[in-house]
Amino acid sequence: MTHTPYAPEDEASPALLRETGPHERILHLIKVAFRGSSRALQSRLRHHGVLYGHWTLLRILWQLDGMTQRQLSEQAGIMESTAFGALQAMEKLGYITRQKLPGNNKQIRIFLTPQGAALRNLIVPLAEETNRIAITGVPDEDLAVTRRSLVAIIENLNIDEMTQAATKEPGQATEKKPEQSGRPPRKKTGAGGQARGETA
């Protein structure tokens, strides 16, 4: 029995992707490339018992050890609560330690253990191998253009994000406080009378 490779419905085959226009769905192509590279690296990490989410945090700590949890989550581009769960697991595995600074019990910094630091020599070559496979057959001049184009796309999106944040109406992102009427505010209910909550 043959195994069918994973192929998400929203990802077209390479043959179909080549037929799209030069500017059509460029962000979709970036997404497809990212998913493919992530799966390739995940497969390699799995053989060594390392989770992809741990790799994301480890590669930052290898560059700058002793960051706070908030700094680390911002660098990784993930929610602080997500980073907290991953760091708990990494601490149990012996990859990191969490230490409070003298005189500041609220600020906890993350430090690599010798075991966590040693993983660098194991994992980085796997990431480099994945990168080499991804760019196989792509001429150097095309790679140079791709890098410049991706940097420009990232800069454009960063500018757009800042513009959107600056033009957002005051109070749009904050919840309206309930009026002080001497009694607790009524909960909004949806179907079945259950209280509504934010969608995850």
TrEMBL record:
It comes from the Bacteria. Transmembrane segments: none annotated. It holds the Pfam family MarR. The keyword Transcription applies. InterPro entries: HTH_MarR-typ (IPR000835), WH-like_DNA-bd_sf (IPR036388), WH_DNA-bd_sf (IPR036390). This is DNA-binding MarR family transcriptional regulator. It comes from Pusillimonas noertemannii. Residues 190-200 have a biased composition (Gly residues). Keywords: DNA-binding, Transcription, Transcription regulation. Residues 23-159 form the HTH marR-type domain. Gene3D superfamilies: Winged helix-like DNA-binding domain superfamily/Winged helix DNA-binding domain (1.10.10.10). One of its GO terms (molecular function) is DNA binding. Residues 162-200 are annotated as: Disordered.
